[in-house]
Design brief:
By secondary structure, the protein is α+β, with helices and mostly antiparallel strands. It has two domains: about 70 residues, ATP-grasp fold, A domain (Dna Ligase, domain 1); about 110 residues, ATP-grasp fold, B domain (D-amino Acid Aminotransferase, Chain A, domain 1), CATH 3.30.470. It is about 30% helix and about 30% strand. The strands form two sheets. Strands 5, 6, 7, 8, 9 and 10 form a six-stranded antiparallel β-sheet that branches. A four-stranded antiparallel β-sheet has the order 1-4-2-3, covered by helices on one side. A hairpin with a 3-residue loop joins strand 5 and strand 6. Helix 6 crosses helix 7. It is globular. It starts with a helix and ends with a strand.
Length: about 220
């Protein structure tokens, strides 16, 4: 996927490609299917099961929410068809498709990423995700490669570290699973030199387990 994108002169992977890359390294991602016509749409919603999320998807679309290309909590075929028509009308890219994604429910959102520093190489980032990313800027960094110990220590270095605990009836976050995600994101950066940045946000915690529901991969 990376080689193909570079040959096409692209600077990013599509969201669907980015999550396929993450999944190939064992990172848990939301179940989704990319569709290109109404028949595929209803087949995909039938396979994944309602409720679903529909997203506009193309290599040049990096900020879907700002472009009004996300529809959530879709519960039947009529709603899915209407949302599909709205999204396709808003996109003009020849490579555009619509992602049909399972609706991952969770009250806590984290963020994991990687940035390639000119001096230190791939550096893994961890912090609070979702709407808190830009507001609180509660993140920490470690150089790759990461050990399990490194990853577990990162979880204690953010100010909001207690969000990982069992609070208000929510299960504690599966720290072993989260540590593995951090280790693997660092590994992706080490093994793929053309990747400049990885942004997994949000990483939704559902029943204690972190799941990537959105991802961006920037190429150099």
């Amino acid at each position: 996927m990376i080689e193909k994108a570079l040959k096409e002169g692209r600077k990013t992977l599509s969201e669907h490609e980015a999550k396929r890359l993450l999944a190939s390294y064992g990172v848990p991602v939301a179940r989704e299917l990319a569709v290109g016509d109404p028949a595929q749409l209803l087949s995909a919603t039938g396979e994944i099961g309602y409720p679903v999320v529909l997203k506009g998807c193309a290599p040049d679309i990096t900020h879907k929410t700002e472009k009004d290309l996300v529809r959530v909590d879709i519960r039947n075929d009529a709603e899915a068809t209407a949302a599909y028509n709205e999204l396709t009308a808003r996109m003009d890219s020849p490579e555009a498709s619509v992602l049909v994604q399972e609706m991952v429910k969770g009250r806590r959102e984290l963020m994991v990423g990687m940035t390639r520093d000119p001096q230190f190489g791939p550096c893994v980032m961890f912090g609070l995700g979702g709407i808190f990313t830009e507001i609180l800027k509660d993140v920490c960094f470690r150089m790759a490669p990461l050990t399990r110990k490194d990853a577990l220590e990162m979880m204690t270095e953010i100010k909001g570290y207690r969000i990982l605990d069992a609070i208000r009836g929510m299960e504690p976050v599966n720290r072993e699973e989260l540590a593995q995600i951090l280790v693997q994101v660092g590994r992706i950066g080490l093994e793929n030199h053309h990747i400049k940045e990885i942004d997994v946000n949000p990483l939704v915690v559902t029943k204690g387990n972190p799941v990537a529901v959105d991802a961006l991969v920037v190429l150099s």
